[in-house]
Amino acid sequence: MRRNKAFVLGQPVGHSRSPMLHGYWLKKEGIDGSYERREVAPVDLDAFFAHFRDSGWVGGNVTVPHKTAVIPYLDRIDADAEAMGAVNTVYWEGDKLIGGNSDAIGFLGNIDELVPGWDRNAKRAVILGAGGATRAAAYGLLSRGLEVAICNRTLDKAKALAKHFGQGATAHPWDDYRALIADCDVLVNCTSLGMLNQPPLDVDLSNLKPGAVVYDVIYVPLETEFLKAAKARGHKTVDGLGMLLHQGVKGFSRWFEKTPEVTPELRQLLVDDIRAKTPGA
Ligand code: NAP
Fold this sequence. Notes:
- By secondary structure, the chain is α/β, with parallel strands linked by helices.
- The chain has two domains: 133 residues, 3-Layer(aba) Sandwich (Rossmann fold); 135 residues, Rossmann fold (3-Layer(aba) Sandwich).
- 36% of the residues lie in helices and 20% in strands.
- The chain contains ten helices and twelve strands.
- It is globular, with a radius of gyration of 19 Å.
- The protein starts with a strand and ends with a helix.
- The structure holds NADP nicotinamide-adenine-dinucleotide phosphate.
- The site of NADP nicotinamide-adenine-dinucleotide phosphate has 25 residues, from helix 4, helix 5 and helix 9.
């Protein structure tokens, strides 16, 4: 069976920019393949994986709400997926179906590109939120040797993540961020606040350490109110679009055996699409 098509599996997936991203790379690399949306409800996951081996899939991306639900359908998960406790990429290794996770690579690739050398003397990070994006950000930041303080509205979720990651990770109630940011080198928004159709992230940055890098994983809108406020205070800022672009590299190279590039042209393609579809973005 010839395999040449990849998917993004989730619910909803209509808004996903991954088809545009991988479609660009397929064309650029001259590969005869496709990248397709598959909107699948949790109750239909069984059916999606039932004939997977004969379906022509080279693999694909997995997004909300299936990032852990897919694990039973795979032969194994790799070390990255194990460490983050979630799968965002499915790929073949011989005849074995593997679950990986490239979100931390995306998180780091983005900040490495936009603020080169950011981690040279960085010791501490504060992450707001304790969901899926926090798993990627925390894993990435810990891998670069930073201590990571996780502040979340639901403290138990922050505690569970800190326990999962172990040494270097701590959990805190939401309001502790005010004191913690006085001595942090990177502040990251991993909540869904500030995203299109969500309330804004309302945080007080007056205590933020001068020189701290401020990162928002959200990319619709491209510049959130949180990033605007940080920029106005003179902080270097990182938006979430590059995280999406950089996480895609690993999957594409596994599926199509070519390592694609994140170029200014590609970024502009997605920026134009976001701006066209999001007034004010
Ligand atoms: P998630 O697992 O649902 O987690 C959402 C987080 O936001 C939780 O910590 C939640 O707190 C917090 N939150 C929601 N409403 C809140 C409120 N009113 N006050 C305080 N905290 C609130 O979501 P996720 O998958 O981590 O995604 C989070 C964001 O990251 C989304 O906007 C997503 O689009 C973005 N993202 C971007 C990329 C990228 O490539 N750039 C990748 C992944 C995700 P509780 O625990 O208290 O509910």
